[in-house]
Amino acid sequence: MNMDQSKTSISTVWNGDRSGQGTIESGSLNAPIAIPQAFGGTGAGTEPKELLLASASACFTMTLVGLLEARKLPAARLAMNSEVSISPEGIMKMIHRPELVLPDGTPDESMQLAERTFEAADRQCSVGNLLKKAGVEIGIEGRVSAGAGAL
Amino acid sequence: MNMDQSKTSISTVWNGDRSGQGTIESGSLNAPIAIPQAFGGTGAGTEPKELLLASASACFTMTLVGLLEARKLPAARLAMNSEVSISPEGIMKMIHRPELVLPDGTPDESMQLAERTFEAADRQCSVGNLLKKAGVEIGIEGRVSAGAGAL
């Protein structure tokens, strides 16, 4: 997904010192934030690295959904686990693991097209591309299967 | 705040096509996500750009909180509005507007020290520095006052 040019804003409030807690809020986001325990905080809330991963994950997912629609590949189910870690050398690495279930009876060529869609989504996702420019490594470990799609 | 080296993971689920909706979830984050209306979605959820801003905002806030504690400047209140926009040339610009209230009777030199803390927090925030490396512009428009700190 490319970036929307409209203005987006959020409000952040913090109470207390390092062991305190805050909230981050916008029209559609409302989450407690807390400093991770590794930095002397309570850890009882989301934090910058997790939100950065959430941004990259949402971007990849939405780009993928747009491409699947354009390629007439209706997902019966789409779920993804994403993780981020930082190497001792300070390199941030993210991995997205999308699991795409296409309807029972989807022809083989469509299954293969769906697999290639993961790479296309990675190439087109604007947040991912921004992070890569800053040296973040992003890996995609996708899986396509056919099934009923029940959760 | 520097980055914690532990692994962080989140789960993302999506239902439907471009006009569908999803959720993004971790231990402490649980938010609906939706494709913005500008891209043919419902707009009824948070999206990548907002989450990216939330990450930068949380990082700046937590870094600031740590510095205020180290400098013995207890905040009576800390609130911040952050916004992000993208220029027609594609340059992403974020502005953080922290409003810091120090206790009544805080000496002038402490007030000035607190003002300088905004710039120090900007220089030390890891997510902000990562985004700057990718060409994002970040501006700080902070305000320090003294008062009772009631919301």
UniProtKB/TrEMBL annotation, chains A, B:
Pfam families in the record: OsmC
SUPFAM superfamilies in the cross-refs: OsmC-like (SSF82784)
Coiled coil: none
InterPro entries listed in its UniProt record: KH_dom-like_a/b, OsmC/Ohr_fam, OsmC/Ohrsf, OsmC_Ohr_Peroxiredoxin
Spans annotated as Disordered: 1-27
Protein name: Osmotically inducible protein OsmC
Provenance organism: Saccharibacillus brassicae
